[in-house]
Amino acid sequence: MGKVGLIPYRVQAVMSSTKTIPPGIQMIEAPALWKEGYKGEGIVIAILDTGCEMNHSELKERIVDGYNFTSDDEGNPKMYQDYNGHGTHVAGTIGATENEEGVIGVAPLADLLILKVLSKDGFGTNEWVTAAIYHAINWRGPNGEKVRIISMSLGGKVNDSSLHEAIKKAVQEQILVVCAAGNEGDGKDKTNEYAYPGAYNEVVQVGSVNLKGEISKFSNTNDEIDLVAPGEEVLSTYLENEYAVLSGTSMATPHVSGAAALIIEKWESKMDKPLSEPALYEQIIKHTVELSYSRKYQGNGLLKLSGQKQIDKIKQQITTA
């Protein structure tokens, strides 16, 4: 039985109250899409993690359903409460609701499907994760809604064929699968560090940068990295209706998952037709800015949602003409 667990991360601060747009969310320029009217409304994101604090003031309105695949609470499937804090933090970065308190997520009107695959100690099995992926594929909301994005800030050393097959099936069903790269990096791009499911080609593997846009020393490097996002000093929701600052590729991943919801909503509202998984991936990569690192560090670059990259290119063409 293959084990999977939380990719090691750091809790840097816990606070009872705050009122801010977290700096990582500003860094990826999510507010630019909010101003255009896109906040992820109607997009369902499945979060496979340690569960979620179901009554957190920032999250309770966003949670549409959930399921517990772990042995916590005697395996009660409807008890997907978070006893660890990690899943609640990830959920807040994706979709903390817009109100007059606390923080706001990348996609503050997205719907969150909480699939608890890691127990209170932060560990689970590949079987639990695989079952949750199939659950996400088959899940339907009251109006026939489907999961569009699966977000997984977890990893293990075992290349599990059943888990890989489940991910392939999700992608075939037009679900984007976003995964953390892992925090075993040694700061060198000559060596490869792989964590699964992040290392599978079919997923969007997310590395981490700090708030200055520098590659995090802990971020895994390999030839399957797709892009990077803020993963250090990330402020989000936490247990006991509080907030915390955490660091890790686990924290970078939900920035990309939330961004995907904004991109889907914007594209489909303009084109009036469904956005396929390959086309969504292409759109995400179009919203990256290349950094001065090798591709093993950064993949296609840093996530930037405003389209400033294209504007800068046009300006450069005009000045060099």
Automatic annotation (TrEMBL):
Its EC number is 3.4.21.-. This is Major intracellular serine protease. Residues 40-301 form the Peptidase S8/S53 domain. CDD domains: Peptidases_S8_Subtilisin_subset. The active site is at residues 49, 86, 250. One of its GO terms (biological process) is proteolysis. The keyword Transmembrane does not apply. It comes from Priestia iocasae. Belongs to the peptidase S8 family. Keywords: Hydrolase, Protease, Serine protease. InterPro entries: Peptidase_S8/S53_dom, Peptidase_S8/S53_dom_sf, Peptidase_S8/S53_subtilisin, Peptidase_S8_Asp-AS, Peptidase_S8_His-AS, Peptidase_S8_Ser-AS, Peptidase_S8_subtilisin-rel, Subtilisin_Carlsberg-like. The keyword Hydrolase applies. The lineage of its organism: Bacteria, Bacillati, Bacillota, Bacilli, Bacillales.
